[in-house]
Specification:
homotrimer; 207 residues; mainly alpha; 0% strand; cell membrane (chains A, B, C); Putative membrane protein (chains A, B, C); transmembrane helix (chains A, B, C); transmembrane (chains A, B, C)
């Protein structure tokens, strides 16, 4: 198995758990857990594959991805009540899944020989769209849009650092590690220490 | 015309009517009715065709699908006010469309020779995503996420029963009938008698 | 560069600005601006290309589209506070982007030799889905669904007039100009003079 397939597997499992945690907030039944888990787990990678014209989409030829996502949903369904703060767990798992999925997107786009802009975009797509679909469908405020936190920014910075590392001719495995590390450190730093970029502030309305 | 094309036509018409009924709740004009009707009618099948790499997407080569969806929207626009409870009609039409569309998804995936996991998933995708897009765009609570009802579960059970029937080497037409029947009976039973699976319950918060 | 590529560029820039304006209403940071701008800018054309099986999707082979969208987002991030009414600006830019994108969709579908129904649908898809994704993701009421305004109707009428102009064997450039003109005049007329089609009215509930 290639490093990229491994990353896809890892991001599927962790994103599936975040999907199941959101399903627990919506008090769905076990099939609903599996549905939201699968949507979250494969959403970003599916979009990446459709955009890049990869045929078949990664999980269509490999049912193992879906079975793993369902297994993760099952585990969450029966154990989530043991967790003190499901929302905090959701945030942390999501940060890990983000880092891994950005890296998977970057890896696939690099393997296919795409240029730097597309590599960065595929990292962002793969990382952000699974969680975005989860939040839109379940009517949660998308983590992506939370003020005072960085999310897309972390994905962007991670994917960009991979492009730079690749430009410096670092070995592939180092490129992928740098990408995942940079994404996760920025997102985690934002959650712990409130790292953020300045947000847009409108003028106060005139009276 | 194949049995699967017939199922696609039937699900397009019935889903279009549900889309138009949701449009009537949002008080749109006639083009808005047609837009939401088409989105609902072809949404699930379009996702299925994109995921399976079917080219062209089923309605792109066959404008009749779209014209039928628009005709259904027109009929609803001029007659919906005659109905006592539009919401109840919406629920029942949606249950029929779900059953037919799950079966169309299963049929296409089987024809293309996909494995059991993909067959079940395509049934669920084709059945659930049209209605899900309709509800997300129109800002209704997705039927899929309603507590105390089965929806994705009915689609899952119907598609799974088709896989079992196919494993038992039943004739194709019986496989499709079992799929539609199982899906619809479960969904209808849920609406009439409140059949449901246990939902996730969080621990009560500690104080 | 073909007329259609030019239209794609123009719609990308203007839609990107509307996306950035919506991002300013959500008070996102600069990367969030770029993210929503890109989603809005290429959303409709991406759907069109996936549906028509164009490979690669228009911006995947041409990073310039994405860079332009990001540049537009940047400009809006630093200058939007100078504008008296950002919402009014958003509406007007959106009307221009709608007209241009409908025309780009119509042009691509005609170039590929599709029939009239698909030409009209691709015009509507390309014109409406970028803005729809923007509004759904940012939890705004989709402009498409605003009562008492025409939006999908303008797209439909513009695309239809292009089909008629093409049937009359007008030169390509005239067909495209008629399409953009008809769409924009109808949408602008709706915003200024309140042009609209009659909306669906339910019977008053019986008491």
């Amino acid at each position: 198995m290639t490093a990229v397939a491994l990353l896809d597997f890892a991001s599927v499992i962790v994103f599936a758990m975040t999907g199941a945690l959101v399903a627990s907030r919506a008090q769905l039944d076990i099939v609903g857990f599996a549905f939201i888990a699968c949507l979250t787990a494969v959403g970003g990678g599916t979009l990446r594959d459709l955009l890049l014209g990869r045929d078949p989409v990664f999980w269509v030829g490999q049912p193992a991805y879906i079975l793993l996502a369902c297994a993760a949903a099952l585990v969450v369904f029966f154990t989530a009540h043991l967790v003190e703060s499901r929302y905090r767990l959701l945030l942390w798992l999501d940060s890990i899944a983000l880092a891994v999925a950005v890296t998977a997107g970057v890896g696939v786009a690099m393997e296919l020989g795409h240029n730097e802009v597309i590599v960065v975009l595929m990292g962002i797509c793969t990382g952000c769209f699974g969680g975005l679909m989860r939040d839109v469908v379940c009517n949660e405020v998308p983590l992506l849009l939370k003020q005072g936190e960085i999310y897309a920014t972390a994905a962007f910075a991670g994917a960009s650092s991979a492009v730079i590392a690749s430009f410096l001719a670092l070995p592939d495995i180092a490129v992928l590690l740098i990408c995942a590390g940079a994404t996760w450190v920025l997102r985690a730093g934002s959650m712990i220490w409130g790292w953020s970029l300045p947000v847009y502030k409108a003028r106060p309305p005139k009276n």
